[in-house]
Amino acid sequence: MCFEWDKRYFRELEEKKNKEKVDQLIKEAEAAAKAEQQSAPATPIKENTVI
């Protein structure tokens, strides 16, 4: 009985750590995308331009 509780506890702990790691990776990716977007020149893209 105690062994089953320990397994469940450690499984939940591992899932929480994995979720926190994924959340951190998402935050880092969003921050990197935002920084890249801000550093890119804001030139409009011209489509269907006839010369």
Number of strands: 0
Mean pLDDT: 82
Report the uncertain regions. none
Molecular shape = rod-shaped
End-to-end separation in angstroms reads 79 Å
Beta-strand content estimate? under 5%
Series of H and E elements: H
Q: Helix count, per DSSP?
A: 1
What's a concise summary of this model?
The protein is mostly helical. The protein is built from one helix and no strands. The mean pLDDT is 82.
Structure description:
This is Cytochrome C oxidase subunit I. Residues 31-51 are annotated as: Disordered. This protein is mainly alpha-helical and 51 residues long. It has one domain (1-38). 75% of the residues lie in helices and 0% in strands. It contains 1 helix and no strands. The chain has one helix at residues 2-39. The longest helix has 38 residues, at 2-39.
Task: Name the descriptors.
51 residues; rod-shaped; mainly alpha
Topology:
Elements: H1 2-39
Protein name: Cytochrome C oxidase subunit I
Organism: Novimethylophilus kurashikiensis
Region (Disordered): 31-51
